[in-house]
Amino acid sequence: MESGICLRCGAPYDSEDTVCYKCGAPIGETRANTQPVRAVRVPRPEPTAVQTAPPPASHAPTAAQTPPPARLGPAPAPAPLASSMRRRRARWPVILLGCLLVLLALGAAAYELRMLNAAPPVANQTRYTDPQGRFSFQRPTLWEAHPSESGVSLNDSNGISTARVAVEAAPPGQSAQAIADARATALGLGLQPQRRAGGVTWEQRAGQVTGQDGAVREDVILVTIYGDRLYIIEFTSPISNYDATNTLVYQPLLESFTFGAASKGA
């Protein structure tokens, strides 16, 4: 063979060469090598993140940065103020309940005080006649009567209001007025208008007296001489319910008072 050029790689060869010294292909080969050749991969450099500077303050805000539109109506209260308002609203029911309980307690106390000061009930009247026949009058059925040689004493169911009718021999030479004045001075009572009862005139004295228990009571005495006997009627009741007791008990007693057959006319 003559010298020439390798048909595979293009390298020159001599006439005595049988293979190409460069690619190893037989001299005179006309086909391309079909043996796959490994490709060498070169790594690609990763792209670096490009940091952009923030837009200047003068730039207009984007859609994401655009503040929400203003709300109509009052602005919401700050968190501490809103919390305080919620606590105040929560306390209102407690305050209202406390006021209601106080009112109920005051009402109960007023009712109890009224019941204590109220005059005893007068359901019915009954006629009381002195066992010795010296007098008689109408008295409440619920009041207790305690007769004695000198007369009778009455009291309500609680024992706080009383009535007494006493009879004794008339002191010689003394008038009903003098006797009434002497008793009024001892008790600290004042002069009151005369009163008619049982068909005769009675001397009347009245005033407020503080008892040994510290309670203030209205004290009324009526004095008259009928025949040879001295009659004394005395009413005593706390000032808080004297008016009611006077209307329901004392005045009916005086209006119904009569002298018995054993007494002589004045």
Write a structural description.
There is one protein chain. With 266 residues, the chain is of the alpha+beta class. It has a domain at 125-259: Protein Transport Mog1p, Chain A (3-Layer(aba) Sandwich). 25% of the residues lie in helices and 28% in strands. It has three helices and twelve strands. The protein has helices at 79-117, 176-187, 242-256, and strands at residues 4-5, 12-13, 125-129, 135-140, 144-148, 151-155, 162-169, 190-197, 200-210, 216-226, 229-238, 258-259. The strands form three sheets. It has a seven-stranded antiparallel β-sheet, sandwiched between helices. A three-stranded antiparallel β-sheet has the order 3-4-12. It has a two-stranded antiparallel sheet with strand order 1-2. It is rod-shaped, with a radius of gyration of 64 Å. The protein starts with a strand and ends in a 7-residue tail after the last strand.
